[in-house]
Structure formats: structure tokens, C-alpha cells
Amino acid sequence: MYDGLQSPGRNDECWCGSGKKYKKCHLDFDERLEELAETGEEVPPRDLLKTPAEIEGIKRSAEVNVGVLDYVAERIGVHESTVSRAVKEKYIQCSMGVYPLSYFFSRSLGGGVVGGPGDASSPDTAKAMLKKLITEEDKHKPLSDQKLCELMAKDGCEISRRTVAKYRDELGIPSTTGRKQYE
After folding, report:
1. pLDDT tens, 125-157?
2. More reliable by pLDDT, 26 or 76
3. Counting beta carbons within 10 angstroms of the beta carbon of residue 10, is it exposed (0 to 12), middle (13 to 18) or buried (19 or more)?
4. What SS3 class is residue 13?
5. HSE toward the beta carbon, residue 62, CA cutoff 13 A
6. What pLDDT score does 79 carry?
7. Taking Cα atoms as reference points, which of 109, 103, 102 lies closest to residue 123?
8. What are phi and psi of 45, to 5 degrees?
9. What count of other Cβ atoms lies within 10 Å of the Cβ of residue 147?
10. CB-based burial label for 83 (10 Å; 0-12, 13-18, 19+)
11. 157 vs 108: CA distance, rounded Å
12. H or E segment at 93?
């Protein structure tokens, strides 16, 4: 096998620990990686590959600790930017669909841990916070981007007014005048 480990039989339990038969779980994936290895491509060893359950755990931890890129970079002994470049424009296909590899990594907007000193927030966390503030606002007197920026800063997510506007647009939320409801 491409990583020197023994390949399970087609009807044996898969090496990933999913409990599924190897032929239904990772056989096609391993065959493709074997082809890539034979053509000289660099292929990660199986101990770096993650199961769907582990990926979900990583996604959940990314909501709390946004240092996922930092963690991976430290674990494999390279700089965070190297990991970021390595996953750029690469995709992963799994039973849940095709995702950009960068989807599984959260970027930090600052230093530290969410909720801790030197609070860092990922763009996803900032967008969730922004969406929550807008859904809870007074619909007759909606909050301006500047006011949203100030409220988010009080909650430990310091981003600029322009970033608030950008995230609001990405979420499909109209500006103050578009959100205002008249009686």
C-alpha cells in the first residue's frame, strides 16, 4: 500500500474505525491514493487522514478554538502560511459532498482563544455574532454598521465597520435602510 501499511481485505472492517466494510468505506479512496503515489505525487499517510467523526470534531473545536491552522502547522512542523497555501484550491470528496479543504480550517481574526484574553474570532464566528445582533435589533430603528461594529467589539470581536458591511453583504442582509420597518 502507498503508505507501507497493510491493506485490509475488501470485506474486513475499514482501517478508519468507522465500522463499515473496507470496500464501502475507503477502498476507492485508497486505490486513488495508490495511483497518485505510483505517479510520484506526494500522498499523506493514513494517520493524517481523518474520519467524518473526527472532521466534525475539528469543526466543533474550530468554533471554540480558532487555532486549527496553527495546530496543524505545529504538528507537522511547518509555518501556518505553508499549511494555508497547501490547502488552497484543493477539494475533498466525502459521503457528505465535495468541500474545499480550507473549509475544515478556521482563520483567526486576531491572537488568542475565543472568549479568552486577546480574544480571536474566526470570520464564521464574527458572521454568526453579526447575524444574531441584527435579528435581535429593533426593526423600527435598526443598528448602523458602525453601531454593530462597536457592539461586536464589546463582545470581544474587534472588526472594522467596512468588515461589518462586507460580512452583512455576504450574509445577504440589507443595510439599515433596507432593514427598517415602518408602521
Report:
1. 888 889 999 999 999 999 999 999 999 989 888
2. 76
3. exposed
4. strand
5. 23
6. 83
7. 109
8. -70, 160
9. 15
10. buried
11. 11
12. strand 91-94
The neighbour count for residue 42, using CB atoms within 10 Å, is: 6
| Residue 64, pLDDT score | 42
pLDDT in tens, 40-70: 887 777 666 666 677 676 666 555 444 577 7
pTM: 0.42
Q: Would you state the cell numbers that stand for residue 68, as one nine-digit string? A: 486549527
Q: How far is CA 159 from CA 45, 84, 92, 110, in A?
A: 39, 22, 31, 10
Least Cα distance to 126 among 100, 156, 102 occurs for: 156
Q: Quick one: which of 134, 135, 125 has its CA closest to 159?
A: 125
Q: Kindly indicate the confidence band of residue 106, based on its pLDDT and cuts at 50, 70 and 90.
A: low
Between helix 68-76 and helix 52-64 the angle, nearest 10°, is 120
